């Protein structure tokens, strides 16, 4: 496959003033008729007229009303307009086959409903067009079809029996185009914007799902208000439609005025959704809504700039969640996710800069690095310039670039203009891949405390040498009694090595470094368990207090693994003290009970030059869990009593925090009582959070088969709950049983593997089960490879994404590497393997 480079960017030779599309819907022969007004682009002399198109059968084409026979090859239609220096109208009609579209890109059918996914390059599967984000136009759409609901972007126009028209007055790139047609029902509401615009809100779902819409609608209204209040951004159309669809490769899509959601990312009810589901849905609704300004009104010049909209929009949705719920809890959860998903990517063969410089298949770059590290970079920028300058820069960004397709250079320039700072070094965060490692050394002499930091970013593919980056280090100092002697300040750490001194201190302080996780780096610091325990007890920064407990747990596990040590008393006592403290938010205490994931432990061992043994990591984790249960024995019933919820169910921060802590306590209790309490809880559970938490405890204990069967019977009609049923069994199996459990489930009649949610429900937990996936013998590698081979011709995008299960393979021993290499080669040898999967596996192999 061809590689596309950022450095080769050239503008398109023409601007598009207007797009008119007519769809005559038919499952296997939909006609798309286009009329597009082009004019020469004054910014370039290049007049090549090339349109993208894939899988289209062209029926006719005209330029300015004259029949035209264009040249079509390899997905490119080329023609030379008779008068390229004057405006002209291109018309064409193509036939497409939505029914045969299993890749879920372009126009496809899901349960008889038509829907689209055009980001990144799906529009070229609908009609011939300059399918690139820097070509923006207004769209007018007419849909002819027998369906009761016919939707497209923008404002509704004329409609009647068998047709509907839509007009989107805001120029947009083709990737934001959307169309939906089907037998849908709406949950409707209204929103009045700050300037008084009345907006019709609709959440469209399949009949039967009406009861799962209320939460999403509330989340939408909160998002609309929040963006007005915090960013001064108002909605700009008369209607905002959201559609839930069952077959969808990603979470959701921000199409202008017509967001399309994976049903798992929008449908919610207390009986079928966990608290985590609710929180995630709220965040995704916000995310897609916020794209209306950061992504749609201001879009990306080219796909290398993807983080321009994604990093910023993830950052904004995180701010929203922090405001609505608990800021420390959100921050901790985001850092857990970052370490679980972005760090392995950044520290392995798939490592790429936040703004990549080349790709073969852009779908492979919708990554944790572009999204989550992209958001971290914005958080760092905000820390460095301060809140006021950040707000001013954003105002300037919206004012200066509204209606444009922009670059990271444009983004940084508004910050430079507002602050007068030179951001050349900061820009390395966008161009250098890899996670910087920061080493800390300390010195204390005559009342002067010196902190010496050094930074190294290890080599990543294509980038052997790295330059120092600007790392904002949020630092506070604590005195011996735990009082803060130096409140949080931001150290600007810009050189390979740099010292910071603090004078006039009465006693040697204990530093609290990288508060709030002020930069996405790995902190390497030799400290005693006693000092960590001190921070766990006293740190005034909630993130770092949690982090102290986390590192204490990690070091404890690592010594158990490498030295066969017993669980560390500092950890267990520190944990007990924190959990006893009823002034602390239950959600926060629940997070304190978490352990580093087994994959994270493997990464740390690998970084320290030790080959990880997955079974040993599993065993140590189990042992520590068991000791924790015993150590907290007396406290567990009290935690359960404290976290009882007496009010009617609400998926808010307060209640979900209680359920999280109660669930964590139940998991420990089950290790002591053999599941008696969990069985009882399962019988009384009246919401999915409690039901799933009780069932999980039982399965983890090797019990609960009767409950599992009852769960299936209760929920067999609900596809989203059955996804959970699949995932649970694989995720909670013991390492030696994971593969046989997964294999047996692939034979279940409900294993509709062509549905991405169902495929991921089974194979996601397989890949995430560290000790099970890497269980000796490599059967899990083979099973996953078998199914990737099967899925690739059907759905390359989801296949390629699942390949990342293998990205950490170089961490492990020679036997495991050899077993994985066999599977990677076997997949790569498949004839006709997709560009998506080929690129991923080639990069993973390195
Ligand atoms: N642009 C989408 C999102 O991140 C992904 N298709 O919201
Ligand atoms: Zn997004």
End-to-end distance: 16 Å
What is the name of the CATH topology of the domain at 1-182?
Immunoglobulin-like
Strand content: 15-25%
Strand order of the largest sheet: 6-5-9-3-2-12-15-14
What's the overall average pLDDT, rounded? Answer: 98
Let me know the largest β-sheet: 8 strands, mixed
Q: Specify the CATH architecture of the domain at 1-182.
A: Sandwich
Task: Give a concise summary.
The chain is built from 27 helices and 31 strands. By secondary structure, the protein is an alpha+beta fold. An eight-stranded mixed sheet has the order 6-5-9-3-2-12-15-14, with no helix packed on it. It has a five-stranded mixed sheet with strand order 17-18-19-21-20, covered by helices on one side.
Describe the secondary structure blueprint for this structure.
Elements: E1 4-5, E2 14-24, E3 30-40, E4 49-52, E5 57-63, E6 66-67, E7 71-73, E8 76-79, E9 88-96, E10 106-110, E11 113-117, E12 137-144, E13 149-152, E14 155-160, E15 163-172, E16 179-182, E17 185-192, E18 198-205, H1 214-231, E19 239-245, E20 252-253, E21 258-262, H2 275-290, E22 299-300, H3 306-324, H4 327-346, E23 358-359, H5 368-385, H6 387-401, E24 405-406, H7 408-419, H8 428-431, E25 437-445, E26 448-456, E27 471-478, E28 484-493, E29 497-502, E30 510-513, E31 522-524, H9 529-538, H10 542-563, H11 569-580, H12 586-592, H13 598-607, H14 614-631, H15 635-642, H16 653-673, H17 676-684, H18 688-700, H19 705-715, H20 719-731, H21 738-746, H22 756-768, H23 770-773, H24 779-791, H25 796-802, H26 814-828, H27 835-845
Parallel strand pairs: 2-12, 18-19, 19-21, 22-24, 25-31
Antiparallel strand pairs: 1-23, 2-3, 3-9, 4-8, 5-6, 5-9, 7-8, 10-11, 12-15, 13-16, 14-15, 17-18, 20-21, 25-26, 26-29, 27-28, 27-30
Helix pairs in contact: 1-2, 2-3, 3-4, 3-5, 4-5, 5-6, 6-7, 9-10, 9-11, 10-11, 10-14, 12-16, 13-14, 14-16, 15-16, 16-18, 17-18, 19-20, 20-21, 20-22, 24-26, 25-27, 26-27
Bound molecules: diaminopropanoic acid and zinc ion (ZN).
Zinc ion binds next to helix 3.
Domain Aminopeptidase N-like N-terminal: 97-176
Enzyme class: hydrolase
Cofactor: Zn(2+)
